[in-house]
Amino acid sequence: MDVYNVKKIKKPLDICVEVPGSKSITNRALLLAAMSDGEVLLKGVQFSEDSYNFIKALKKLGFKTDVDIDAKSVKIIGMNGLIPAHEASIYVGSAGTAARFLTAFTAMGSGTYTLDASEQMKKRPMRELLEVLENLGAKFKWLGEEYNFPMEVTGIRKKIEDDNFFVADRNVSLNIDRSSQFLSALLMAAPSVFTFLTINLTGSRDARSYVEITEQMMKQFGHKGVERLGADSYRVLSGHYHVNEYQIEPDVSAACYFYAMAAVTGGTAIVKYIRKDSMQGDMKFISVLENMGCYTEWTSDGELKLYAPKNGKLKGIDINMSNFSDQALTLAAIAPFADSPVTIRGVAHIRGQESDRIAVIVNELGRMGIKCDELDDGVVIYPGMPSSATVQTYNDHRVAMAFTVTGMAAEGISIDNPLCCKKTFAQYFDVVESLYK
Length: 437
Known about the structure:
By secondary structure, the protein is of the alpha/beta class. The protein is built from 13 helices and 23 strands. The chain has 2 domains: 204 residues, UDP-n-acetylglucosamine1-carboxyvinyl-transferase, Chain (Alpha-beta prism), CATH 3.65.10; 210 residues, Enolpyruvate transferase domain (UDP-n-acetylglucosamine1-carboxyvinyl-transferase, Chain, Alpha-beta prism).
C-alpha cells in the first residue's frame, strides 16, 4: 500500500478497539529481562519493527529467546547482567530506545560489539550518551561519523576477569535536553557493573515521564531502585533483576489516536485494557482532550471511555507538552477543528526525532491550507477546515497515524507511505478500516 486514502466519517462513531502493548515498556522489558538472573516471561509484548530488531539483537548477543507472536509473549533467559557472546554485530534499526539501551548495555559488557542503525537513526542524537560511556571506561571505534552509528564498542567488563567484580563508585554529568533515553539507558545498564553510579543532569529539560517509567520498571524487576539526590541528580546502586513474569501495558501513545478520532468526529471511544494506574506519560493527553471540551468516565468494566464535546466543537488550548511530546502530532492533527488557536510549547526536542516534527506539522498542515506559526519550541495552529492533500510522512510512524485522524474529519486526505507505521503499530490501518464497518 503506497498511499492510504482516508475516508471522512459521516456519522459519530462508537469506537472500541485494542492496541498493541507499549513500545516504550516493551523495549525496557526486553533489556531488563536479558539482564535478569534467570528465565523471564514477558506478556502483552508489542511486536513491531522496533521490537523485532531489539529481539534479533539480543539473539545475536547470545541470549536464548522464545517468541510466540500469537500469544504476544517472549521468553528470555537472562544472564544476570552478563552478555553471553563476546563478539557480535547487531542492528538497532530506527528505534531510539533500542539504539540507546543496547549501546549502554554492550558498553557494560565484556566483549567487542559492532552496532549499526538505519539511516534515520544515524541522524538522531547519541553523542551525550556516548561521551558518558567513554568517560566510564567503554572504548569506541567510529566506523562512520564520530559519536554515531555505525560503531564498534569494547565493553567496560573487558578489563574485568571476575564476573562478580564491580567497578568502584563513579560520578558523571549528563545532558538529556535532546533525549531522556540517555538517562534511562544508564540507569538500567549500570547496576551490572558499578557499585553505584551518580548521574548529575546539566541541561534545562525537566520532562522525565519516561525516566519515571524506567525507575518504576527497575523496581518491578526486583532491583532496589534509584535514589534521587535532588531535582537533577540520580544514584543507581549495583544489584540484580529478578522476576518470573511481567505483563506489559497497552500502548497509551497508540490509544490516543483513537480517543482523538472520537473527539473530532462527535463520537465515543474506548481502548481496551487502559489502566487507571498507567505509568505512561501520554495519559496526560486525555486531560488535554478534556480541557478542549471532551469528557470521560471509567466504566463499570474498568474501561476509560471518552465522549466528544457536547456542542460538537473543540476548544482551543495553549499547552506545554514537554512531558508527553509524542502526542504533539496528535494534537496538531485535530487542532484545525478547534474554535480558536491551539499552541503547542516545550517540544523543541522533537525536531531531532524520526523527523523534524515541528517542521512536519507546519509543512503538512500548510499543505492542507491551515495557517501555522512555527515557534522555537513548538507551533501555533489556527482554526480552519483542511483541504484535500496527500500527507508526506517522512518515514515517521507518528506522522502517518496522527494525520489519519485529520482525514476522518475532513474530505480528501491521503497518507503517503502509510506502512511506515509498522515501526510501532503494524496493524494500525487494519484497525482504522474496521471502524467503517
